[in-house]
Amino acid sequence: MEIDRSSSSDGAVVDAAKAILEGKGTGGFFKRVLPFLGPAFIASIAYVDPGNFATNIEAGASFGYTLVWVIFASNLMAMLIQALSAKLGIVTGRNLAELCRDRFHPAVVYVMWILMELVAMATDLAEFIGAALGFQLLFGIPLLVGGILTIVATFLILGLERYGFRPLEAVITGFLAVIALCYLAETLLDKPDWAAIGLAVVTPRFQGGRSVVLAAGILGATVMPHAIFLHSALTQGRVRVSDPAHVKKLLGFELVDVLVAMGAASFVNAAMLIMAASTFFASGHTGIATIEDAHKTLEPLLGKASSWIFGLSLLMAGLASSTVGTSAGQIIMQGFVKKHIPVWLRRTVTVLPSMLVIALGLDPTATLVMSQVLLSFGLPFVIIPLVLFTSDKKLMGPFANRKPIIAAASLSAAIIIALNLYLIFQPFLPEAFR
């Protein structure tokens, strides 16, 4: 992400951050942590993109609260992984893609780059179609026109980068706040069964092969490959410090950033599934499997305001995540192969599959769900290098991962790989295991 960090607003933020790290800052906890907030909020938008809408709504409508535990488990993994990504950028001054290029064989690097570009296209598919759907649901605009509006809006938002990192962070955080408020309103309207939700959180289980596919989709829509690359890039040069004591403080503040931002994303994801379960599953509308059906059915069940709130949250999620996805794509290309192409050209190339889906009249929601499943296949190729690098004492020094962190991150990777293997071999398994 090419941002002019010399802007006066950014300079003031960095100066305030350094003063706090040196023990010169004053004020309460919020004032002291404020200069460090931002990177995780940018990355967290990837965790509430339209792909989440598709998987969470279908999961809630089809299986009630059964899979709500998957959301919380996925978000715990996300917090851990994003914290490691942020730490990598702060400690090394390099982002994950750059370190992969420096430390892996060139053939491996090119394979990883191609794979991550494909993952970026799958990501963009969800974000672009989601925003176009948001325009259609709110204003009755055809999907194709909504797609064009999404491209224009993305360029306008990305244009804020020329003014530094703070304006873009403020806009993206504003989008996240709107999405959270929309789902707070939806949750209040649908009056969920909190006791049943609590039980579902502490009793992990599946209900057949389709629930496992949706669980993989939820995981793929939550722990996003491009967000992992992006977060390390956002922190690598934001506040430059060399004193180990200052680095330790900086890592602590960044952890707060991760916990707050990912906590908000976790709430939004859970609220999506809870809304679908409380509204559709509870009323017998278990056949709700598309975003369009959900929007249409909300109004007679909960009132006109609910469908409008739903459409607004989808539009905000699509626009924000599309912007962040484009920036992440630039970082991936620059990091792996040291190539830079204009943002408008990258945006044009990556939206082609989405425009093709719209032009062919394919089911947008089914496409969104499958795109999230594809994302889960790319995760091991991101998480494994991340864990290796952040555990390397030569690279990370005293900030290398300790054994409990290595174990937790390795377990996360193992769970993701196991889900992927299940998806691959599911058609060949006995009926009892599907």
Give the tags:
434 residues; mainly alpha; Amino acid/polyamine transporter I; 20 helices
Structure notes:
This protein has 434 residues and is mainly alpha-helical. The protein has one domain: Amino acid/polyamine transporter I (Up-down Bundle). Helix content is 78%, strand content 0%. The protein contains 20 helices and no strands. The model is unreliable at 1-6 (pLDDT under 50).
Short description:
This protein has one domain: Amino acid/polyamine transporter I (Up-down Bundle), CATH 1.20.1740.10.
Helix content: over 70%
The secondary-structure element order is HHHHHHHHHHHHHHHHHHHH
- CATH first level: which class? Mainly Alpha
CATH fold description: Amino acid/polyamine transporter I
Mean pLDDT: 81
Bulk shape: globular
Q: Which stretches are low in confidence, meaning pLDDT under 50 for 5 or more residues running?
A: 1-6
Which helices and strands, and how do they pair?
Layout: H1 8-21, H2 29-33, H3 39-44, H4 50-63, H5 68-92, H6 96-103, H7 106-139, H8 143-158, H9 165-190, H10 194-202, H11 209-222, H12 225-235, H13 244-281, H14 291-302, H15 304-337, H16 343-360, H17 364-378, H18 380-390, H19 393-396, H20 403-425
